[in-house]
Amino acid sequence: MPTKKNTSKISSAKIDKPKKRVAKPQANKESDTEIAVIVKKPITKVEEETLFHKKPSSETKPFQSDEISSKEPEPKAEDQNKQNPIQKFQMRISHSGKKALAIFIALAVCLILLISFITLPTATIYIEPRTTEEIFATSITFADRTINQYDLLTEKPNYIATETLSYTLELTSEYPATGELFEGKPARGEITIYNRGTKPKTFVPSRFKTQDDLLFWIESEVKVPERLDDATPGSITVPAHAADYDTFGRPIGTRGNIQAGQQLTMPAIPYLSPLLYYGVNHKAFTGGTAISSKIVLQEDLDLARKRIEEELTKKTMKLMDEKIIARNKAENRNDTMLMVDGSYDYKVEEVKVDKNLLGQKRATFPATIKLTVTGRVYNRDDLYRILVSGLQSRITPGMHLGKVDFSGMEMNIAERNIKKELIRINTEIRGLTIYDFDPENETGQEMTKRIRQKLAGQQVTWAEKYLQNLTEVENADIVTWPFWRDKLPSVENNIEIKVKN
Asked: DSSP class of residue 340?
């Protein structure tokens, strides 16, 4: 049967070609032999299609032996996209391995940084530099810019140019009226007058006083009988009312509502009262009200004239400063007034106090004064430049000038030449000098370098004692990392020095 024989050959030819495309698992010789045996067996049409990933077709075309022997079957595009399950597994392992490797490397780097942070020691030294107070005393001559041009142009030592300014100042102030007009109602009651004498005593309307200096008046003339015996004085009860003002001129008002049983004396006859004559209110006084008004007295007007002149004299410098500050802003200057005795003058032009205010009912009244002030002003920077230069000339090497106390500066006039408009003053200024640890300049760099070299690798306690004994150091603290280390790092660059303010 030729047909069957031909078919068998064709099947063998189809098996030989796909063997190159299918990946063989690497196995032992026994498995290789087994595969060879399987290959030599004839395969059915279904097995052929399964082996080459072909879909079963309903129609079977006749095989051509010449075509099969000369051409390889071309796989479809969708077959090329399909991957072997082993290859898929290998790719999965490859992606997972890369991710795990990346995580491992990141963790290793973090661990190395953490170990370096913990194990590499550092130290910070906080230093408070020692300060000393320097005092600089000098004489300064303030010279009128116009009259002393030559001396100023030749730059005489400690000469400062001044100019004269005049301002007319006016001040209005309110002053209190001291008079009082009582408009309330006096308290009323009764006073029993006692007479210890042996004869009757007649009293015109008289005053009685309490221990609190309150005054009361009896309202009519009264005759008090003599005593009955040594233990029983004569007496008479009469109506009375509180006075408008007490012994100090203060309105009594409601204070006149005194309680019963108070002993009263007669201030007009202190040598006889209360020895012979006195009074007692056996009932309380009532009805007193406190209504009073202030009125302007002549003494108030006279006092206001005096006080406003004193007040403006004290405020003159402040008012002049306000004028100079306004000029500085307008002209971009830094002038100030020379504040020493004899460097300024003022003249009172007018004092206004209205005479028609006399007797008026009011609590306060105005008074106005006008005066002209003449003073000498100078540039504040010129003075500061001279004083700071003098302080710097006294600084010890290795130190720099810190705070300068200009507010505590005092000026005392030493000489005044009215003709040349010269004023020479003596002044004294104080400033703080500080040892230099600033790394920005050469002195500070040398100082910090010397400390690092000395303290590198030393015990913290020893280093603190060393710093405290330095002339340049007032106080010092050392902070190490890790915090449990009791030694400073041996590497100088790992020691940082910071200066306390």
From this structure: S
